[in-house]
């Protein structure tokens, strides 16, 4: 007899399976394949890094491994609590230095009072209300009081800096643009400088942590990046076969 048949028979002879809510669980949904998901979920809940889990599960890509588990509410909350103590404003000032753990109502307030950006968070009420699609300041986040970020956005901050530097070079060489158009489209020195110093500030605060704290931040970052929604994207300059257009990342 095949293993799957033996397994089916074993599950059939079990007493009723109940969910946490006390409802009966459909036993036909208990298949051998489910154990791979349970295995991945338990590892993920225990904080096993996704690259380690990928190796344990024999996957080629992290993306495949990530489809095997969900980021639970509890883990997300723990991660938010950990990272909120390292939240920075646009000047690199720490916002919640003393925060140890957010209370329930603070979690709720944070969720409804802010919206995710590609490299941080926006707390501007009209933009939050519009789900992040109505920035009144054309996404000039590096100069905006409503912007904040934390170490989980570090890769995105660096990528944004690279984008600005690339755009600056490309626009400088764009002979088909009038000076005023080029000047308006070119990322400002102020934005680049502000972004550089913000990145340095986040990096240096991370370096100042103990190895144990850094590891905690790394895990919290992995959890939040996994659960983060798809971003709307920021205005950027997108090159297209000999053409330069102002566009928005999707
Ligand atoms: S500039 Fe950025 S932080 Fe400020 S309101 Fe617009 S999206 Fe929000």
Question: Could you walk me through the main structural features you see in this protein, from its secondary elements to its overall organization?
Answer:
The chain is of the alpha+beta class. It has two domains: 3-66, no CATH class; 73-248, no CATH class. Helices cover 49% and strands 9% of the residues. The chain is built from eleven helices and six strands. The protein has helices at residues 3-12, 34-45, 50-57, 62-66, 73-84, 104-112, 125-129, 154-172, 179-185, 189-207, 211-227, and strands at residues 88-89, 115-117, 120-122, 147-149, 235-240, 243-248. The protein has a four-stranded antiparallel β-sheet. Strands 5-6 form a two-stranded antiparallel ribbon. Helix 8 packs antiparallel against helix 10. The longest helix has 19 residues, at 154-172. The chain is elongated, with a radius of gyration of 23 Å. The N and C termini lie far apart (51 Å). 21% of the residues are buried. Iron/sulfur cluster (SF4) binds next to loops.
């Amino acid at each position: 007899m095949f293993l799957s048949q033996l397994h089916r028979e074993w599950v059939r002879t079990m007493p009723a399976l109940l969910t946490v809510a006390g409802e009966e669980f459909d036993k036909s949904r208990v298949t051998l394949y489910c154990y791979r998901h349970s295995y991945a979920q338990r590892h993920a809940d225990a904080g096993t890094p996704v690259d380690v889990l990928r190796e344990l599960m024999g996957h080629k890509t992290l993306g495949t491994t990530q489809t095997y588990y969900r980021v639970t509410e509890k883990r997300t909350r723990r991660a938010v609590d950990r990272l909120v103590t390292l939240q920075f404003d646009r000047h690199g000032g720490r916002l919640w230095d003393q925060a140890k753990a957010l209370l329930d109502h603070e979690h709720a307030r944070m969720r409804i009072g802010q919206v995710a950006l590609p490299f941080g968070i926006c707390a501007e009420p009209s933009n939050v209300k519009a789900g992040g699609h109505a920035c009144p300041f054309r996404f000039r986040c590096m100069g905006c009081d409503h912007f904040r970020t934390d170490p989980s956005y570090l890769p995105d901050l660096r990528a944004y800096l690279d984008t600005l530097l690339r755009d600056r070079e490309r626009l400088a060489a764009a002979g088909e643009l009038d000076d005023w158009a080029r000047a308006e489209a070119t990322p400002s020195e102020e934005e680049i400088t502000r972004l550089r110093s913000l990145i340095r500030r986040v990096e240096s605060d991370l370096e100042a942590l103990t190895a144990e704290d850094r590891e905690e931040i790394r895990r919290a970052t992995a959890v939040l990046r996994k659960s983060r929604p798809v971003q709307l994207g920021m205005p950027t300059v997108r090159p297209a076969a000999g053409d330069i257009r102002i566009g928005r990342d999707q």
